[in-house]
Amino acid sequence: MASFSSAAQLLSSSFASKQRDNGERFYCLSDSAPDWCSTAVMLAHDDELPNDSRYALIRDAAVALADQRFDSAKEAEESLWELSCDLLPGFTGELLVWFSERPSRLSDCDDALEELGSSGSYGSVSELLELGHRRASEAVLSVLIAEIEENRESLFNPDEDARLLLSDSHGVYIPQLYCQTLSEEEAEDSGISWQDVLTCQSGPEEELYWETWQQICDSAEWEEDGERWCLLQNGDLWQVRADAVIPQEWF
User: Fold this and answer.
1) pLDDT higher than threshold 60 for residue 165
2) pLDDT at 201
3) Buried-most residue among 81, 85, 127, 247 (CB within 10 A)?
4) How many helices (H) and strands (E) does the chain have?
5) Backbone dihedral region of 235: left (phi > 0), alpha (psi from -120 to 50 degrees) or beta?
6) What would the DSSP string read from start to end of 87-109?
7) What is the mean pLDDT of residues 50-61?
């Protein structure tokens, strides 16, 4: 299970900046983004069709959540107002552009005005626009927090879901060293061909060394501490929880 903080970082890293033919830059989800990130972005559009400014706000909100490294969803929820302040455009002109792009966004200002009631405790129209933008930001942040919390249990956590077996300092001898630790019974219990183990024990000079090692990595799976584990090599050799969804960047 991933922590709230690491899941937020995964979401924020799933955005990519791209450029159109006319030179305009925009944010979108990267091709490697997990499915749950797509769902989070869709919900955070708040019934708007996909558009650049909403994507930018969602991305900025995700980055803000990741940067704060919150320990829990509750802690993040308690910081909504402070986070929404950080997401405000720096200039009044940018704020006006935000609302002009989608007139329906003015409903956030109406909600803010209704919340203020007859007190009218704002000093100017620009302040009311700021309140409206902050309400929109809070809505986006709330959606992202809920989606992070809902999905983090199924996300890969290196601290709990992976155990280092051999570091990459062993280089080409990793397959040989790993196989030298296996007995025939252990290999059988893990679904590994004993002949493949013997081949790798011969060392990297063996012609079929790497091909056989790949077969071992693909087939090895065993039970330990009530969990199913398998092999994964990303330089280092790890045993990882078999049902873990491992992010591409971990490779």
Assistant:
1) yes
2) 97
3) 247
4) 13, 6
5) left
6) TS-SSHHHHHHHHHH-GGGHHHH
7) 96
Number of residues assigned to the chain: 251
Does the pLDDT value for residue 59 go beyond 90?
A: yes
Q: Where do we find the tokens 């006006």?
A: 96
Determine contact, residues 29/10, Cβ cutoff 8 Å: no
Strand order in the sheet with 236-241: 162-166, 236-241, 227-234, 221-224
Q: What is the Cα–Cα distance from 24 to 55, expressed in whole angstroms?
A: 14
DSSP 124: S
Q: How far apart are CA 72 and CA 61, in angstroms?
A: 16
Residues 106 and 99: their CA atoms lie apart, in Å, by: 6
Q: Write the Ramachandran bin of 170: left for phi over 0, alpha for psi from -120 to 50, otherwise beta.
A: alpha
Per-residue pLDDT of 184-237, as tens digits, reads 999 999 999 999 999 999 999 999 999 999 999 999 999 998 889 999 999 999
Write out the two tokens for 207. 């012609």
Confidence of residue 65 (pLDDT cuts 50, 70, 90): very high
